[in-house]
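worker-03 picked up job from queue 'complexes'. Input manifest follows; two sequence lines, order preserved.
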Amino acid sequence: MAERYPFHAVEKKWRRRWEEEDLYAVPDFEDKPKYYCLEMFPYPSGKLHMGHVRNYAIGDVIARFKRMQGYSVLHPMGWDAFGLPAENAAIKHGIHPHDWTWQNISFMREQLKQLGFSYDWHREIATCHPDYYRWTQWLFLQFFHRGLAYRKKAPVNWCPSCATVLANEQVVGGVCERCKTPVVPRELEQWFLRITAYAERLLQDLDKLTGWPEKVKVMQRNWIGKSEGALINFPVVGREEGITVFTTRPDTLYGVTYLVLAPEHPLVMELAAEDRREEVGCFVERARLLPALSRTAGEQEKEGLFLGAFCRHPLTGEDIPIYVANYVLMEYGTGAVMGVPAHDQRDFEFARKFGLPIKVVIQPPGEVLDPDTMTAAYVDEGVLVNSGPFDGKPNLQAMGEIVAYLEEKGLGKRQVTYRLRDWLISRQRYWGAPIPIVYCDQCGIVPVPEEQLPVLLPYNVAFKPTGESPLKDCPEFVNTTCPRCGAPARRETDTMDTFICSSWYYFRYTSPKEDKAPWDKAKVNYWLPVDQYIGGVEHAILHLLYSRFFTKFLYDIGLVSCDEPFTNLLTQGMVLKDGAKMSKSKGNIVSPEEIVEHYGADTTRLFILFAAPPERDLEWSDEGVEGCARFLNRVWRLVRSLIPVVQGAGEPAESLSPPNRELRRLTHRTVERVTKDIEEFGLNTAVSAIMEFTNGLARYCEEVKPEERDPGTLREAVETLILLLAPFAPYMAEELWEQLGKKESVHRQAWPPYDPKLVVADQIEVVIQINGKVRGKVLVAATATPAEMEEAARREPRIEQLLAGKEVRKVITVPGKLVNFVVG
RNA sequence: GCCGGGGUGGCGGAAUUGGCAGACGCGUCGGACUCAAAAUCCGAUGGGGCCUGCCCCCGUGCGGGUUCAAGUCCCGCCCCCGGCACCA
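worker-03 finished. Artifact:
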């Protein structure tokens, strides 16, 4: 029975020692370059899943690697601890959300510790702790004082299942992002953060984020959805007030043949002709009742209705019919659109369906558009026609001129519009940070004074989802006095969206116990921005956009000195089983607990890093885990068998026999490979390089007689192997390091350097090609010149044979690589 | 439809700047050790061919092209995954 790495005992031993020595604590300031390595903190749902393990394993390799490279590394962990699941669990199992959450935290903390992640636990935070949410509330007040937190009545997304409203970002394809229930519109008075005030900067500064994946930046760009265009006023026949439309194509203004209003547009009913009121009312009602799902998800048949009213074209004075139609959205632009069927596909379809005229105003080069035979709108560039004084101009030029003309006449103006909406942050739920606001009959909306924070979440509350905050039924909470006039007043009972809590946690880690401010400025400015952020791509818009918004705001009010929080972002892929995301309903969950129990932390980590590059999805494989366990056992046996030789050995000898020189070369080449791979997140190839190194070392031991081995070279190889393995398999590396007789932790060692001179082989194998096909190989000195390479190639018997009697027209030599004979 | 990513053995995945396709691992097959098995170790493993030579042909989604040389570059397609989707 071959000896096996006794991971249970080793893990237990080192967990205790590391904790005793406080190995991973990082001082606030140190005389070293800083590196802030952060992974997205988890929601304490109960147990870790493989996605967490992957996320944190990747982060831990980076943190340990940087630490060994001499950085002072901030690598913290905490809990995104407010949220709905706690309340749902409470309702289902009769356990209080507070208790449920803290139980989960203590279980998951234990799991993280078992996995050997190198967090500084002194900096642990939980967003549901009053010491934390006190500052969440404080930050809300900063927004409030600057007019960036406001209350308004608006149509909002209501999730019937979660019994709360949702932000736009939390509605995906018309359904609730968390429970997939179709959301329904509701008209409610709610709190918003004015993220739209930062739309332009959030967009512009994406260009600064060179360390972010393009994918995420594109998603944010689309989400912000900037369009440049114009507002144009169309006077309504027989009325004072006109209709303002937003268009990105003012160059097509002369092609307008009708106007369309969104069903929710306030003018719809006003403008509807007497005899059409009822019909229009029905239409609007039908559109309104349709769940958001079918309104926004997928294109659907265009429906519309003539209102029986007309407006006047601002430039031609023509009468233009006004319609109401389902394809116009009230939320975007002005909720009114000018219909240009010839040059907008949607308008084209609508016009064809309702028999509206199609008027061509842009002619493509070398083609004449005929409205009667067109099968699709022409949306590209061309020259204006039927456009009065603008005829003959290129449309891009005309665009500016038409807007300028409208501005001059007071008929319209330049306008930039964003798709981004203000962030709805009220939640009608219990388990969140209370919004620190008091309503007073005399004074109105009054912010809770900072010195009265936190507004504590009461413990004894019935948290049934009724559609109203459970806090409403808690008189001790609701009833208060007005901070301004002292009269009886009521507290705001809604709590904050948990994304608020997670929008600033990375600042708090720098000074988690600070009680005079959300953070110590000097510390925040020392550590921030985060050098490397790692997490799932599902947060591409939500968390990452909100955090950028928060950071910019805090920068503006002078609380932080960076205006982007995350310099580099790595979005890791999902963990799949049988090609599908692990989920309870599919029954394909692999539990980290069981794997760690059965194979140990090192094997679990190693497999998850080896099986795929970090950004890609990872297919779980039990056999693959076995393979990694086998590898670690091999390392264990190999290193232990060499301890007697290695201990006490000195430096490698000056002059080495070929096998020793080869081993030395392998050692240094491996350091080079692993270093470069980790730097560019090729963690899977870093692991395979270590495996190859192990194989090479084992082969050396097999092939080279003990008396021919150079002890110094062997020592260097073995120590290097352990050092390289340390970020990936920290427990085993630490144990072997100690068995080697080392006194100080392997995790406090410097990352091994490599000597480029030693990496180069004495001899290199040159590929010999004839007409681009490999026909042989030859060993030459690494220093061989192209002429020497060619000469050596020609001398190869087989090549000589193949070239005999042929005319060599050309010879291409790539130094150190190949010789290619081109024969006629 | 638009945007982003991808398509390489039986599987997960490697391949600087265009320079030996398939590293490493899994699986499979064969062998050693063993009474036997497990564990461990060794060897083989893209497909095909015959003249069994450490030889030849084919081979990185498909069709063209550039080049001495293409998984990699160019043109035209197909398929898969992710995101957005009536945004005027």
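worker-03 released lock.
Residues 135 and 518 of chain A are 5 Å apart (CA to CA).
Chain A is about 40% helix and 20% strand.
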